[in-house]
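This section describes the prediction task in plain terms. A model, or a person checking by hand, is given the sequence of a single protein chain and must write out its three-dimensional structure as a string of tokens. No templates, partner chains or ligands are provided. The sample shown here is typical of the held-out split.
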Amino acid sequence: MTPTTTHELRAELRRLLSEGQDSAVVDLLEGLHSADVAEIAQELEIPEVLAMLQLLPAERWTDILVYFDDELQSEILENFTGKEIAEVVLENIDSDDAADLMADLSEEKKREVLQNIEDVEYAKDLADLLTHAEGTAGALMATEMVQVNENWTVSRCVREMCRQAEEVEVVHAVYVIDDHDILLGSLSLKKLLTTGARTPIADVYDRSVRSVTSTTDEVEVARIMKKYDLFVVPVVDDMGRLLGRITIDDIVDVIQDEADSNYQLMSGLSDEVEAGDGLFEMTRARLPWLMVGRNPNLYRRRPQRGRTLAPSPTRLFHAPDRSHGRQRRRPILGHCRPGPRQLEHARNPLVPPVPRTRRRPLERSPLRPGHSRVLVGRGPRTALCRRRRGFAAQRDHFCFALRNRRALGPQPLRNRPRLGHRPLYHDDQRHLGAEHLLRHRQRAARMRALLVDTTHPILEDGLASLGYTLDRCYGVALSDLPLSTATGLVLRGRIAVDSALLDRAPQLKWIARFGSGMEHIDCAAASARGIACLSAPEGNAPAVAEHALGLLLGLTKRVTWSAREVAAGQWNRASNTGWELAGATVGIIGYGHTGPAFADLLRGLGLRVLAHDAYRSGFEGESTLAQIQAECDVISLHLPLSPETKGYADYAFWQQCAHQPWVINTSRGNILPLEDAWRALNDGLIRGLGLDVVDLEKANLEGLTEAAPFWQAMLNHPNVLITPHIAGWSTQSFARMAQILVDRVAGVA
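The expected answer:
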């Protein structure tokens, strides 16, 4: 008779293992799901489980291993070396399951496993997953997923998906990101199959994607997936960059654990127990609550005035809670004798248990020497001020203080909550009543900040502390932005703010640019409407200065080019002779924020620095443009983009230079026309180019060769070094710019 139940299958498996019938064991397990095999093997001894797993292919038994509980997984993995775990176990399972398996290993064995993983990127992802705290979304997510760029076409998207899908067992969703890995939306497979091959992905993807951060609690993730009926949810970091995804199978485990925990709490179990535990374990877990229930005095209510305890039928009565003069009803458990009002209320629920009491009038607290006089009155919300020295404002009261009866005039309340970005004031002549408070509430409700792009948590938290409601519209089309209710607008330069857009925002008071350039914003039109334009150019100045120095050193010391040759198998020393900066003169054009920061670094190296700015004067090293062209060995551009500076450093500009300078540009690409710079380099007018920006800059390099036929030749030139506009991108600069913007928004009237 063929075994069918779990018990029968387990007994048959034990018999076959004991008799050494290996082929029969494989035939028995062949038609079973891995979860069923794990359930059967759960009650076996460790040697029996190991013997069973060794008979199966690596892909099969590693899949079964995932379904074991944590204790059994740890016991099995202890029988393998770190190299065996890396080569056999982790190669056949997803990263989230791999992280779960490694979580219970010792730190020494974790390091051994990571060192033996051949795929460096996979090892790095696995190490990052192990750093997330238990119980968070980061600990549940897997890094295997399909992601496409918003600037790709449908045909290229299909090719990339086919390549990426080789590493993903099941494709639940296709995520759309930008060049900085920021999540923008999701792509429907139906739209992908029914759309033309040349259609841009930006025209077809869905921007209303639900996501969670890596620090989100796992229970909150389960709530979000249940609320929105999601099978998979993406995980992002604080900057909105895509990190991984969480599937429904991982969330089911979280829901089950939470349900078990709630069941144990409702059952009075103080320790974690299993359904199959014996009577002794169940009794021990429930013992604290049994001891509490054994003492009846713990349930007795203390006798009230003129009232004695006497035996009476246990019944649920209601008595008044006279705290703060409010009429509340709360249950009384025990054998307390009810009064006449309670008995009447029990017979007729329409009769209140106690008569309503009138609120007490305003009263003055006693005045202590050296302290303030506190006037306590009743109000609709918690205290606005708490006097820590000698006085404590009661809940649901307003407190107003006068120091030693002196008429100080209007004074700000201390320890007050922020009801908007304006402080509240009081004096000794008037009461801050409900009407005044309502006005502040209404004003705070009207303060809405629209976030078009992802910024930094410091900026978001700062705006929230100022009383702003945040509307995060990442990836939303320009025409769909809710501008009519926005008080503030936060962007990073991806959209153009012109008069047409400002007309749609009648309540707009300020525009905050998370960066340095303001060329995308029509500041004149905004100023005419009374809108303040804010930026933080000094926030990323140190990062840009360091990047400019890195470009200069990389060019003159041929660091990048020689490293590229070594990677190609070439060891050329003579052809990679460097150029010393000692004794050189560096010219800086544009001396706003990044220019002085770059000059400080250069002076620290002992270099002579000349600087020119058309709108500033009186700074160290000030010189004319002609002097810089005549004397400088290095010229670095730090100009803002404007109609006056567009095409500033053209071919004619370099014809006036006498020393064949090295050229650095970390400002804006349109200041230095790329074609003119390439021509000047080939004609020997300049020695080399270090560029972080180009005038043909796009979100990707697609189509750049057609627009600039010399582009590939420029990339292959040994004296050209180009980076993808990352000079101002650093962890410190993001935080610094965010704090600067918060301070400037707070200063807007």
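For orientation: The domain at 443-535 is CATH 3.40.50.720 (Rossmann fold).
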